[in-house]
Specification:
There is one protein chain. This protein has 255 residues and is an alpha+beta fold. The protein folds into three domains: 43 residues, no CATH class; 91 residues, Immunoglobulin-like, CATH 2.60.40.2550; 96 residues. It has three helices and twelve strands. A five-stranded mixed sheet has the order 4-10-9-6-7, with no helix packed on it. Strands 3-5-8 form a three-stranded antiparallel sheet, with no helix packed on it. A two-stranded antiparallel ribbon has the order 1-2. The protein starts with a helix and ends with a helix.
């Protein structure tokens, strides 16, 4: 018997004679029998219990709902969760069982439309790992748009379009507000131009009328002076009518 075997033998004798252990379980699948002369002690080393997946989505709509699973395992153990596609592991998640051995897990990971296999393994604090649980089949439908490796959910797409629409509305609102301010400014300038032009025309009219009065103060017109006199009067009437019409059109345009 080598040194390791002798050490194990004495440890077992210690447990036997102190009455602390008669049968003990370990994370393995073997049975050891030790003879100590007068008595025989049987030690069962049992495998770690497989976790169970009790709740899982048979059909999962990716992109519109959360992926949720739950089950039971050895109390206070780490649960390794595997999602496979054709025996190829795509996702590996971790959960932890409570003192009653219950565990759960949820994720918002995006999955493409396909058929998947779900399984789990348990690992205790010593590092011992159980056998895989029974595989559960899941059918996944992706709720969104697939552009090669890029997947956009309908929810994200709607949010993106909403942002674009909101930005468009804000831009149009600012453009309308700016146009109104510009229109108001042009209207004000048009009113000022109208008043300035009208004052200039009034001054011009007064000057022309003064010149005409100079003609009137003379005893009479010759033929050429009569033509100039009549043309000035006619030009004043035409100019006044044209200016009033154009200014009125400008004002009406900005109402």
């Amino acid at each position: 018997m080598n040194k390791k075997g002798i050490l194990i033998f004495f440890i077992l004798l210690f447990f036997i004679f102190t009455g602390m252990v008669d049968t003990h379980s370990f994370a393995a699948g073997k049975t050891f029998v030790e003879n100590s002369g007068e008595s025989t002690t049987k030690i069962d080393i049992k495998p770690m219990e497989k976790p169970l997946i009790t709740v899982w989505p048979r059909k999962f709509i990716s992109g519109s709902e959360a992926f949720y699973i739950s089950g039971t395992a050895t109390p206070d153990a780490e649960v390794l969760i595997f999602l496979k596609e054709n025996d190829r592991t795509l996702k590996e998640w971790r959960a932890h069982s409570d003192k009653n051995g219950e565990w759960f897990f949820f994720s918002d990971d995006i999955l493409k439309s396909d058929f998947y296999q779900l399984s789990a393994m348990a690992q205790d604090e010593t590092g011992a790992i159980s056998e895989p649980s029974e595989e559960k089949n899941i059918e996944v439908d992706f709720s969104g748009v697939e552009l090669g490796p890029i997947m956009i959910t309908f929810g994200n797409l709607a949010m993106f379009l909403l942002v674009i629409l909101s930005l468009g509305i804000i831009f149009i609102w600012f453009d309308i507000r700016k146009s109104r301010q510009l229109k108001k400014s042009l209207k004000k300038e048009a009113e000022e131009a109208r008043n300035s032009l009208y004052r200039a025309f009034v001054d011009l009219k007064k000057e022309v009328e003064r010149k005409i009065e100079m003609f009137d103060s003379r005893p009479g017109f010759n033929k050429q002076e009569k033509i100039i006199y009549d043309d000035l009067l006619n030009a004043i009437k035409i100019a006044q009518g044209s200016i009033d019409k154009e200014i009125l059109d400008i004002v009406n345009h900005f109402k």
